[in-house]
Design a protein that fits this description.
Radius of gyration: 23 Å
Helix content: 25-40%
Number of helices: 12
Number of domains: 2
Distance between the termini: 42 Å
CATH class of the largest domain: Alpha Beta
Largest sheet: 5 strands, mixed
Order of helices and strands: HHHHHHHEHHEHEEEHEEEHEE
Length: about 400
């Protein structure tokens, strides 16, 4: 029983910052204490407690992933996927099970901070400290691990002297994050996933979009940003819709998510309309198991056809796309991309991110996504302008 309770406590400390944010209870001091406590528990708890904690972290962080299977016609997979993520993160933390030496576990935790099971990168160990007095860079994680593990090796009166290393882990500030010199309207919609792609929802959605464009134009905005796939159709197959957007773009820049069909291939894309012309940004990083299957080719087709109705077959761009809007450069990011380091490579000061979080409503997914965006924005000195369907939109620094 003690083994289980210690595992539950460790997982709770490790996950608390997400739920604090979800319920508007975020506190830098509490996040600091809980984050340090979570790392300390992983260094010293009994071996079996590590496995309990890993399994529960998989549930606490990712219980919502299976929700999307309901819209693929395989809703029975939801509890299986949820349980599966518990197992994945039990295995993720399992290397700690094979030693009870704190300094060895510290090395293993640092190694795990570079590992992404199945290309899924939403568990970042440093993320625990994104809203705390501790920083999120690797050297700060090293300082935390050394400060908490080295006392186990010292047997004299200086046993706790390594705790002074925590001073090196403190957040001494990040690169400057500027506001874009434009007036930007971020549109947050709340279109339920079960109706989003239905024929009956199309006209109300299009009408809403053009009303928002008219309002933003009259209010003097330079740019209006709509969520991912706000147009639930293949935009390049709808010339009348393209023409209407091009006409409106002579007065205001428009960024909107949609789909594109090209040479019998499908792309999840962002359209940018400005001055009567448009550009298209294809997605660079796909969602594992949502838009591609990160398994050997022999398994990809079977899983795609069986569990995703053939839908997990989107293709990608070869490099990130930048939009030049009234002389200001913005990097494009579609949903999952905004939580991937690839988008922040190179000369990037501003990112326009679009998401459809209705796949996972109701859940903590938008909150975790927002925390991850904040993590990457601070690490890279970038300001993110995020438009989302369901929840999670806003300016993120």
């Amino acid at each position: 029983m003690r083994t289980i309770s210690l595992g539950v406590f460790t997982a709770s400390l490790f996950s608390a910052f997400i739920y604090f944010e979800e319920f508007d209870l975020t506190n830098k001091f509490l996040n600091s204490v809980f984050g340090l406590g979570a790392i300390g528990m992983f260094l010293y708890v009994p071996r079996r407690s590590v496995l309990v904690a890993g399994f529960l972290i998989g549930l606490f962080w990712f219980y919502w992933i299976g929700y999307s299977f309901e819209y693929q016609g395989v809703g029975y997979m939801t509890p299986i996927v949820t349980f599966g993520f518990g197992v994945v993160y039990l295995l993720f933390f399992a290397p700690l099970y094979f030693t009870d030496r704190a300094y060895v576990r510290a090395l293993l935790i640092f190694g795990l901070s570079f590992f992404q099971p199945f290309d899924w990168n939403w568990l970042q160990i440093e993320l625990l400290f994104v809203d705390s007095y501790v920083g999120v860079f690797k050297y700060q994680l090293v300082a935390v691990l050394l400060a908490l593990s080295l006392p186990s090796l010292i047997k004299n009166k200086f046993k706790y002297a390594p705790l002074l290393l925590l001073l090196l882990s403190l957040d001494y500030g990040y690169a400057e994050q500027k506001d874009a010199p434009l007036k930007i309207k971020l549109v947050q919609t709340d279109i339920k996933q079960e109706v989003k792609w239905t024929r009956g929802q199309l006209n109300p959605t299009v009408e809403m979009i053009f009303k928002e464009i008219q309002y933003a134009t009259e209010a003097g905005y330079d740019l209006i940003v709509f969520p991912e796939s706000v147009f639930p159709l293949f935009m390049n197959k709808n010339p009348s819709l393209l023409s209407a957007l091009l006409g409106n773009s002579k007065k205001i820049g428009i960024v909107a998510g949609s789909l594109m069909s090209e040479n019998e291939r499908h792309y999840n894309v962002t359209y940018f309309f400005s001055d009567g012309e448009y550009a298209v940004a294809k997605k660079l990083v796909l969602v594992p198991f949502g838009e591609y299957v990160p398994l050997p080719k022999f398994a990809q087709k079977f899983i795609n056809d069986t569990f995703f109705s053939g839908a997990s077959d989107f293709l990608t761009a070869d490099e990130p796309t930048d939009f030049l809007i009234k002389g200001v450069k913005f990097r494009n990011a579609i949903c999952y991309e905004a939580t991937c380091q690839e988008i922040y490579e190179g000369d990037v000061a501003f990112v326009i991110a679009t998401s459809n979080n209705a796949w996972f409503a109701p859940s903590i997914e938008p909150t975790l996504q927002k925390l991850l965006m904040k993590y990457y924005a601070r690490k890279n000195g970038v300001t993110i302008y995020h438009s989302a369907n369901y929840k999670g939109g806003g300016v993120i620094k």
